[in-house]
Amino acid sequence: MAKQQEPDHTSINLIGTGTTIKGEVSSSGDIRVDGTLSGEVRSKGKIVVGTTGVVEGDIICQNADLSGKIRAKVEVSELLTLKASARLFGEIITNKLAIEPGARFTGSCSMDKGDSPGKEESKPKPGESVKAEQR
Known about the structure:
Layout: E1 12-15, E2 20-22, E3 25-27, E4 30-33, E5 36-38, E6 41-43, E7 46-49, E8 54-61, E9 63-66, E10 69-82, E11 87-99, E12 104-110
Parallel strand pairs: 1-4, 2-5, 3-6, 4-7, 5-8, 6-8, 7-9, 8-10, 9-10, 10-11, 11-12
């Protein structure tokens, strides 16, 4: 029986220094931005914005390492790392956040991606017993 190979999604896409792109960039592989990108950048993998990189728009990905200048709404499903040289102005929605000393962030951050907005934690009603959860 012949095996069907799944496509390899480990490609690395580079927007080099001196390159300017206006529009939407989407990839199933990783993306590195060392140039300028005006618009949305979306990846099923990792997005890296180098120290010379500039992004103005939305960043949507699984993981991100940001070192450049970013004016964007950043949605990262796993880990967002702001390196020491990062300058981020905008909104962050992520599961985990790491900020190195020296990084600058101005905006809002939400880390309750799995919770519904406005959903209150369930509180016991008077007379109900409370069970302790073990973690």
